[in-house]
Amino acid sequence: MTDRIAERVRAVLPRVVEQRRDFHRHPELAYEEVRTSGKVIEWLGALGLEVRSGIGKTGVIARLRGDRPGKTIALRADMDALPVQEATTHGSARHGFASLVAGKMHACGHDVHTAMLLGVATVLSELRDQIAGEVRFLFQPAEEGLGGAVPMIEAGAVDGVDLALGQHMGPTHPTGTIALSRGPAMAATDFFTLKILGRGGHGAYPHLSVDAIPIAAQVVTALQTIVSRSVDPLEAAVVTIGTIQGGFRNNVIAPEVEMTGTVRTFDRTLRESLPARVERIVRGVADAHGARYELDYALNYPAVVNDPTAAQLLERAAAEVLGADRVQVIPPSMAGEDFAYYAERVPACFYWLGCRPLGAQDFANLHSPSFAPSWRARRWISSRARAEAGRVARRGSGLIVAP
Ligand code: NI
Q: How many angstroms is it from 106 CA to the middle of ligand 1?
């Protein structure tokens, strides 16, 4: 089986690379993935899979049913790009696949996720006679902030699913490795917008105004005490103020300051307690100075919690394919992922697929205009892992192909 998979992977790889470059040239933002999903539908249709499209506008679900009954496994890829102006060298004559759309870029590697899952669908379709149960391919829109997983789930994406797997490019991990967490993997990512409403006036007469700026400054400082003083030190939490804006010029008292921030947690009870804690601080400080406030606090993605059994299964399978030394168990990350919605419903595991050039000290992270996932370890993999793959094949072990 391992040999048959490896042989088919080698055969489909050039098409996957070509398709990924095509996606990279034509990035589309959340819920606008019309061209991308068109390519996905075309590809899956040619494989003879049962395809449903137009889910949450652009989502696609394809089902591959084996000859025999068995479990259902869902593999998920996200398709959306980011509003980032590309600054890679992909535009060079040698590569020539930089984004053709100004201000949009696949800076989070979703082009890779989508192309790879098409490759997996191809390989598994060719091995249909070996499959018991069902493999479901989820191509979801709008991972970047707009929760494209939700309409997918509403459309039945994980109905009857026994295990869901998702992957993400991991530029902090070397190419040829994967990294995953057992249990909590990525944080719940909530957001707020806060306005401090004072009363404007002349900079020379502060006593006739309510200056929103010093009040906002106190609010920012006081919000820092949530994590440092009121959250259990053994619990993880982040409160970040990301933007702050207010005022007109040097001699005008600012009537209003607006700030936005993010709050991140793993524990559900802690998460649910934080909007009230934030508001209590804001209200107290605003009251003390005779100002008003408006707080808009939105619960966004829940935390991604990997099912321990699913994580173990993935760890074991990855160790067989890559070698145990290329599978890293890591602490959870405070970044977020809407894969969380699938993981809330069915046993699931989300992992990082290393894409950092071998030996590179300096590299561009996700969402960077220079983000460039590397598969330069190809030679390194083929020389060292070939022997290993042979060893695995000889052992005749079962194998799960990671998307
Ligand atoms: Ni991403």
A: 9
